[in-house]
Design brief:
With about 500 residues, the chain is of the alpha+beta class. Helix content is about 30%, strand content about 25%. The protein is globular and about 70 Å long. The relative contact order is 0.16.
């Protein structure tokens, strides 16, 4: 018998998973379909920031900035294992934006979003502050302000897991081949040969939103999508402190240099028009050269392509608002509702505002579900996030006391990945050998089995690059061993 759902969501990125979670928590039956892995495209290729978007103030996107600023602390409280505060150092470049303009923008940034946890902006004398040591000596003044870091792919996976715990059906590696109206509902044919029915269809396919509308739903897109490629590079750690840098570029863009995975620095991003297949996006030598030059303009020690240990690129599906430059295109989201039975299509958005986007989606869909429960996600923790926002260190220390065979670095990684669920994953282990086969970099058979069983991991890439970033640390031989284990146990 064909299963019938209230809501079928196409797309397992942050917006699709956020809508599925919100809807499931309101009592709706939900099916989420993802053609690949969760966060397999744009949602794992971000700059990994929960931020208000300081530069959006230049384009007077005050509502988007206000909403984003408020969401920083909501997400920090909901997921303190994968979201944490960072301080950003913005050196003043005398040839670019004037000091007074930046100070005015940061005053608004401090006060628009109802900040309570994050500390305010302050000025730095780079000649005396340690943040000035990695910089060229001609940079003498800077502002320091607050935003947050996020493990973007884990945010998606944990959002999906919360949706599943509330009853949603999460189907990865399952493409929706066609969606047709039949007897007042959507009839879906899936790539595994099964079918399903839904009262409402949500198209949250990210950069594929237009192609889903045209080839799956057979409708014209009500809004145009502007595809913008963002490229990032990772190098060995460039500076010893735990603050980030925001560098202004002469072309009007900005570039971040962010402490990453303890031993590395993440540099990004670019904003380039993209016209190809989003599934085939790559970092080009030109992208690498641009990012190296952008940070080398500020650093005493230049960064070159030879320093790169990893690179990644993603395509942002922005609503085409007619902006002349890619970096000026709005990051705001638009929800287009059409047809009967309805299809709700998601255009644009950013990872910071995914929860608010999901609430807005439910407002649009509420007329189709009389008696629908109200908003609930503002104060709800994601799985593993039920501890104080500043409690990760204490949780790590407690994990080491409970499992004394864990090295502090491994325990810290487990807390940052699983939060309070690290204990569930480690179970009754008494010695390291109890965790089974060791795949390197602290990754064991028990953790791999946990990821397969509870987080929809299938491949070595799922585990090494999206459920974790251990791909930066394991050897080729260890990666192949993991692949063979997954193939044999699958």
């Amino acid at each position: 018998m064909t299963a019938v759902f209230d809501l079928a969501v196409i797309g397992g990125g942050i917006n699709g998973c956020g809508i599925a979670r919100d809807a499931a928590g309101r009592g709706l039956s939900v099916l989420l379909l993802e053609q690949g892995d969760l966060a397999g495209a744009t949602s794992s290729a971000s700059t990994k920031l929960i931020h208000g978007g300081l530069r959006y103030l230049e384009y007077f996107e005050l509502r988007l900035v206000r909403e984003s600023l408020a969401e920083r602390e909501v997400l920090l409280r909901a997921a303190p294992h994968i979201v944490w505060p960072l301080r950003f150092v913005l050196p003043h470049h005398t040839g670019l934006r004037p000091w007074w303009m930046i100070r005015t923008g940061l005053f608004l940034y401090d006060h628009l979003g109802g900040r309570r946890i994050l500390p305010p902006t302050r000025t730095l004398d780079l000649r005396a502050d340690p943040a000035g040591l990695p910089l060229r000596p001609d940079f003498t003044r800077a502002f320091e302000y607050s935003d947050c870091w996020v493990d973007d792919a884990r945010l998606v996976v944990l959002t999906a897991r919360d949706a599943a715990l509330r009853g949603a059906h999460i189907r990865t590696r399952t493409r929706c081949e066609s969606a047709r109206i039949s007897d007042g509902a959507w009839s879906l044919i899936l790539s595994d040969g099964s079918d399903a029915r839904a009262r409402v269809l949500v198209n949250a396919a990210g950069p594929f939103v237009s192609s889903v509308l045209s080839s799956v739903v057979r409708q014209n897109a009500p809004s145009r999508v502007r595809l913008v490629k963002g490229s990032h590079i990772v190098v060995r750690r460039l500076f010893p402190h735990d603050r980030c840098y925001l560098f202004q570029n002469a072309d009007g863009r900005i570039c971040f240099a962010i402490p990453y995975e303890q031993d590395f620095t993440l540099i990004g991003t670019t904003d380039d028009e993209f016209a190809g297949d989003p599934a085939s996006v790559t970092v080009t030598p030109g992208d690498e050269a641009y990012l190296c030059a952008a940070v080398s303009e500020y650093l005493r020690q230049p960064v070159t392509a030879a320093d790169i240990v990893w690179r990644y690129a993603g395509v942002r599906p922005l609503r085409d608002d007619g902006a002349s430059k890619a970096q000026e295109a709005t990051r705001d989201y638009v929800l287009e509702l059409s047809g009967s039975p309805p299809v709700l299509s998601v255009f644009g958005g950013k990872i910071t505002t995914h929860r608010r986007l999901a609430e807005a989606a439910m407002v649009r869909l509420a007329p189709y579900f009389p008696g629908l429960r109200g908003p609930w996600t503002t104060d709800a923790a994601l799985p593993g996030g039920d501890f104080p926002w500043d409690g990760a260190t204490a949780l790590r220390d407690e994990l080491v006391r409970r499992y004394p065979f864990l090295a502090p670095g491994v325990a810290g990684r487990m807390v940052r990945a699983y939060g309070t669920l690290a204990v569930d994953m480690l179970g009754d282990a008494r010695v390291w050998a109890d965790l089974g086969q060791d795949f390197g970099a602290g990754l064991t058979q028990r953790e791999v089995d946990w990821l397969v069983r509870t987080e929809w991991a299938v491949s070595a890439e799922d585990i090494l690059w999206r459920r974790s970033k251990l791909g930066l640390r394991v050897t080729h031989e260890q990666r192949e061993t993991l692949r063979r284990y997954l193939a044999d146990s699958g």
